[in-house]
UniProtKB/TrEMBL annotation:
Protein's recorded name: N-acetylmuramoyl-L-alanine amidase
Pfam families found in the cross-reference section: Amidase_3 (PF01520)
Keywords: Hydrolase
PANTHER family: N-ACETYLMURAMOYL-L-ALANINE AMIDASE (PTHR30404), N-ACETYLMURAMOYL-L-ALANINE AMIDASE AMIC (PTHR30404:SF0)
Domain MurNAc-LAA, first and last residues per copy: 58-161
Record-level GO cellular component terms: outer membrane-bounded periplasmic space
Species: Laceyella tengchongensis
GO MF term (any one): N-acetylmuramoyl-L-alanine amidase activity
GO biological process, one term: peptidoglycan catabolic process
Domain of life: Bacteria
């Protein structure tokens, strides 16, 4: 599991600066707990708040022969959607994206941009199926998604959905 790259803080919500990484890390913690509870072995490829290079993240997943790579993100750029990515040509990645997206999009209702392909490093450089989830936009108009992203109930709902 990957917590996504650290991005600079974007919005302020009631005077509080929100950082993407605090959401990503919380979702991955909840996801880690859920998977272990179900008997899965897990691997955190970016276990600290330091911005671990992408090559280190994918290299560790490849070295440990992970079965699935899941990267958790919150987007920026003024949208209001959820979307799930996989690497073009990876049928196993597409299937994983379909299964995950089906549940994530209903965990916390918002506009759905669906499943897409992308040439993102973490999707391209892994030897296992890989999925990158954008749970929403941290700078959405009105900052409703930003407020949700710091709510532990929302974080856990997304983790359980995955």
């Amino acid at each position: 599991m990957n917590t996504g790259k650290r991005t600079p803080p974007i919005p302020q919500l009631n005077g509080r600066v929100i950082k993407e990484n605090e959401f990503n890390r919380a979702v991955v913690r909840y996801l880690d707990d859920e998977l272990k509870r179900c008997g899965f072995k897990t691997l955190l490829v970016a276990p600290t708040d330091n911005d671990t290079p992408l090559a280190t993240r994918t290299g560790l997943a490849n070295k440990k022969r992970a079965d699935l790579y899941v990267s958790c993100h919150y987007n920026a750029g003024g949208g209001e959607v959820i979307e799930t990515y996989h690497y073009k040509g990876s049928s196993a990645g597409r299937r994983a994206a379909e299964l995950i997206h089906k549940h994530v999009k209903t965990a916390v209702p918002r506009k759905d941009r669906g499943i897409k392909t992308a040439n993102f490093f973490v999707l391209r450089e892994t030897r296992m199926p890989a999925v990158l989830i954008e749970y929403g936009f941290m700078d959405d108009p009105g900052l409703e998604e930003a407020a949700q992203m710091i709510d532990p109930k929302v974080q856990k709902a997304f983790a359980v959905a995955v």
